[in-house]
Design a protein that fits this description.
Number of strands: 7
CATH topology: Rossmann fold
Number of domains: 1
Oligomer: single chain
Largest sheet: 7 strands, mixed
Structural class: alpha/beta
Shape: globular
Strand order of the largest sheet: 1-3-2-4-5-6-7
């Protein structure tokens, strides 16, 4: 089955290792400038126990003819509509950097419509309640390239390929602008557990920013730190896979126990 083949075809969803019998789904949201393929390896490592849905934002790869999203709230609203048909079983959200913010706002909206996730995993990003502008009004090519080199995660050969950079920069700029323009709106905390995952030397994440995530849930909160920087995920995939598997298994078991007690 190809990544696009599923009983619920959507340009937003890629399934690189479909696991239709898995008891839980994990929706994975990419970073600024990233695409669904960033999670293809994770999907294969988690299958068949966890069915991974990798989100493909507009403006990249096969959706490159579409305009990138401009507002995080609009992105979250679109994701609620796209993900609702997939909530026929337990599901969780995982987002890295921009994806963490999008996952949080999507989780809030899904809870509001009675489709709560069993867990939220936020990676490479401090709590939204502490979000501040980072770049100001100017986001020119020089600033974007400096940021990309600083954070890593991009093959150095990409910077030398003018055609690739010409195609990539407008999308990356739109994603960063979406983050810059984000404004946290206070509301009820989530009812699901929240786990924050970060690289020890990530220049974008502070200890207070990570700890503040605990205030966004009435359930449990825990924090995991791995060796590496902003893109620690690339090198620490085994540890990340284990962390996700253990926590999702616990969430599914807890849900099963709760259901049994209510019978």
């Amino acid at each position: 089955m190809s990544p696009r083949e599923s009983p619920l075809a959507s340009p937003w969803i890629r399934r690189y290792a479909p696991a239709p019998e898995a008891p839980v789904r994990l929706v994975c949201l990419p970073h600024a400038g990233g695409s669904a393929t960033f999670y293809s390896g994770l999907a294969r490592r988690l299958a068949p126990d966890i069915d991974v849905l990798a989100v493909q934002y507009p403006g990249r790869l096969e959706r490159r003819a579409e305009a990138p999203m401009k507002e995080l709230a609009a992105l979250a609203e679109a994701l609620v509509a796209e993900l609702t048909p997939w909530t026929d079983r337990a599901f969780a959200l995982f987002g890295h950097s921009l994806g963490a913010m999008a996952a949080f706002e999507t989780a809030r909206r899904l809870e509001a419509v009675g489709r709560p996730p069993v867990a939220l995993f936020v990676s490479g990003r401090g709590a939204p309640s502490l979000h501040r502008r980072e770049f100001g009004p100017q986001l020119d090519d020089a600033v974007l390239l400096q940021q990309m080199r600083r954070l890593g995660g991009t093959d150095p050969r990409v910077f030398a390929d003018e055609e690739l950079m010409r195609l990539a920069l407008p999308v990356i700029r739109a994603d960063y602008r979406m983050v810059e323009d984000y404004r946290y709106v206070p509301g009820p905390p989530l009812g699901c557990p929240v786990t924050a995952l970060n690289g020890r030397t990530d220049p974008k994440v502070s200890a207070p920013g990570v700890d503040a995530w605990r205030h966004h849930t009435t359930a449990s909160f825990d924090s995991l730190t791995f060796p590496g920087g902003h893109f620690y995920l690339v090198d620490r995939h085994e540890e990340v896979t284990t962390a996700l598997t253990d926590r999702l298994s616990a969430c599914v078991q807890l849900g099963h126990d709760d259901k049994q007690r209510s019978v």
